[in-house]
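Hi there,

I know you've been waiting on this one. I reran it after we fixed the sequence typo, so this is the corrected version. Both the input and the resulting structure follow.
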Amino acid sequence: MLSHPLLPKLKELRLSGMVDSLEERAEIAREQKLLPIEFLALLIDDEIERRQQKKQARLEKDAGFESIKLLSGFDFAAVPTIDRALVLDMATCIFVARKENWLICGPTGVGKSHLATAIGYEAIKRDLKTISYSAHKLLGNLFAARADGSYTKLMNKLISADLVIIDDFGLRPITAQGAEDLYEIIHHRYERGSIILTSNRSPSEWPELFGDSLLASAALDRLTHHARVTIITGESYRQRQRRKGVTQSEEERKTSI
């Protein structure tokens, strides 16, 4: 089968999904006495699956996630104030189809970034173009893009994506230029594309981050319109894990005495 005359033709047509499974599918066809059209259907399914996996991998790479955070790995029990039903509803990504935003606020370590990234992965499963940045990195990249002439290209990428995730908004100071760039993103995506924004600042503190009251009012009016705002309260998951580790170490020390 490895030297079958069909193989080079499949490779020439870039049907590598069929190439990889041809021998296995041919054996199944012989064992189950499949009709030629049924055998062909199996090969086509393999090719479709390969292309879908390749597309998913490309979308994940383009998204720029800093780490893999899936919804299946989110510990809802550790964050009892989060509305599980709401999260599962957001995971359907219907809000992306509606061009709505999701604003997630809360102290450090309560799972905001995890949730944002997890929903980003759910969006990619639905073939939605997703881009993820920390606010600081996003504005830094836009600033650098002005110097090398790629600003328009990057801004167009941010505007055209189905979902843009901006993590840790307000964690670091925003320059006047950064505030203008952020406004441009919000302005151009308003009712055209969704934003997930996470922040450890209360929404009431957001206007002062822009430094310009008029700019802040215009940006936040668009950002919060057609948006769900989720406030997560509680203690840092990392701090709980740290104390748990300390407690376990102390118990082990006492046991060994």
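Quick highlight: The first strand starts at residue 101 and ends at 105.

Best,
R. S.
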